[in-house]
């Protein structure tokens, strides 16, 4: 038994090193490729874009998305683990596609959050979600997209645009609550979100609204830690068998 556990630990360590190395490489390649187009237009085209315009545009985008760049990794990492995080941020649509897929897979096999088994389940679930997504885009957008748009009434399209995303996010929240099985933390998160969105945002105005998500996440983390059930024992990442 000791030999099997040691072999599993060594195999997971090798897997972690490999995914971390290639994850960093692919993320850097993705960053360079995403910047290649704008860099070409800025330095090698005749658009003559002033540097002040670039800085202004960057600050305008950063004012909204810089907060998410901090909040999202903190929010997703406990569920996905390191390897799946590289996948998720390369693929995108994390909250409404990849995270629910990982949660469903982990719940289906009874994997506890933060364990090796849950991390591997998240990786496999994201692979499956990506394959389904690619084939769905190929069929329903690439092949049938124009035809489907032409036959769907405009009223249905407007309703879909207005309600589908909140419905998906609401379902994800319910999945997360059922997955972690921590009623106290769930109540804290809902209470903090309600106070920030219903009381603080209307009073403090649009500037505070840009940071409301970060405030909700940070306050929930602090309060959940301070008000946690201190009699509960949590298993570490190495306390569960790999398979």
TrEMBL record:
- Organism in which the protein naturally occurs: Kocuria sediminis
> Would you say which domain of life the source belongs to?
Bacteria
Protein's UniProt name: Uncharacterized protein
Q: Which residues cross the membrane?
A: 25-44, 51-71, 121-148, 160-180, 187-205, 211-227
Keywords in UniProt for this one? Answer: Membrane, Transmembrane, Transmembrane helix
């Amino acid at each position: 038994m000791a030999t099997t556990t040691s072999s599993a630990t060594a195999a997971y360590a090798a897997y972690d090193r490999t995914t971390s190395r290639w994850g960093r490489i692919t993320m850097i390649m993705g960053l360079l490729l995403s910047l290649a187009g704008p860099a070409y237009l800025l330095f090698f085209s005749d658009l003559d874009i002033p540097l002040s315009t670039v800085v202004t545009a960057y600050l305008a985008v950063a004012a909204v998305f810089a907060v998410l760049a901090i909040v999202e990794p903190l929010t997703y990492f406990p569920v996905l683990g390191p390897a799946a995080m590289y996948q998720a941020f390369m693929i995108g649509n994390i909250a409404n596609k990849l995270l629910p897929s990982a949660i469903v897979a982990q719940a289906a096999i009874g994997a506890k959050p933060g364990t090796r088994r849950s991390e591997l389940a998240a990786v496999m679930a994201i692979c499956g979600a990506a394959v389904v997504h690619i084939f769905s885009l190929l069929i329903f957008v690439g092949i049938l997209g124009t035809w489907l748009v032409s036959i769907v009434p405009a009223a249905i399209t407007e309703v879909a645009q207005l309600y589908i995303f909140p419905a998906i996010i609401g379902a994800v929240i319910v999945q997360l609550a059922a997955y972690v099985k921590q009623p106290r933390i769930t109540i804290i998160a809902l209470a903090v979100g309600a106070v920030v969105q219903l009381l603080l945002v209307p009073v403090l105005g649009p500037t505070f609204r840009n940071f409301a998500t970060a405030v909700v996440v940070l306050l929930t983390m602090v309060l959940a830690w301070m008000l946690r059930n201190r009699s509960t024992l949590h298993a570490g990442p190495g306390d569960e068998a790999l398979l």
